[in-house]
Fold:
Amino acid sequence: MSFALESVGLTHADGSTALADIRLAARQGESIALIGPSGAGKTSLLSVLGTAWADQATGTQQLLGSELRALDARARRALRARIGSVHQAPPLPGRQRVVTSVLAGRLGQWPAWKALASLAYPMDSAGARAALARVELEDKLFARCDQLSGGQLQRVGIARVLYQQPALVLADEPVSALDPALALATVKLLVEDAAQRHATLVASLHAVDLALGCFARIVGIRGGRIAFDLPATQVSQAQLQALYAGEDLPQPTQAPQPSAAVPPMNACR
Ligand SMILES: Nc1ncnc2c1ncn2[C@@H]1O[C@H](COP(=O)(O)OP(=O)(O)OP(=O)(O)O)[C@@H](O)[C@H]1O
Structure:
């Protein structure tokens, strides 16, 4: 088992409920897409899986073999080093070199002396270059982060998690700043990398066609609750309409299909 959430709820300090009664489990090596309208709770769920709300969330959270609440601070840090996050807008310091940002993926795995030394002088430029090559950014190895476009920054964040090689990858809208072709190639890269390493991948996506085309399992979230949890092949148009009720269904990222409502199931394969 990679993770298991049981009766998980999350209420913020202002009293708003982000998650309620979440029951979700994944085997190690599964790839799951989270879909749902804006404000549904996708980021909150990814944050809970990333241990961000360890003390505020209710219910039980088993992550990579540990009951989160039973872990002391040191054990939580060790657990976090095995979890990799890809952010919609990666929090990379503007003055930092891309190489340093990518190598930061392993800071939690390295001894303190190596992590500190790497901040001053990159300890594994070749490794960072190889990870950047996978997102076609190897020429940006020594660029400063504030010299990159939003889409390039997003791909640096992905290179960082590819370099980290965590057991659990949590990707929050990882391709929102990329053009359709690059978005498809990048989601495919994340899915294939996770499959090859037998890592678990959970990605939130606004692009329903990418979710259905690239992920075997789809979890629909609405109002902080799981609306459905199904193999991609079983998600119906009616379920998608209900999930996004009151909103326009996200438009396909591919060229329009003859019946554009449900995208091709093999977009990624
Ligand atoms: N730090 C916070 N304080 C108070 N409320 C919050 C906080 N973070 C999220 N929320 C609320 O929790 C709910 C779920 O937000 P969340 O960001 O998880 O949704 P989402 O599905 O990721 O949305 P989007 O697709 O727009 O990114 C929303 O109603 C949001 O306003």
Remarks:
- The chain has nine helices and ten strands.
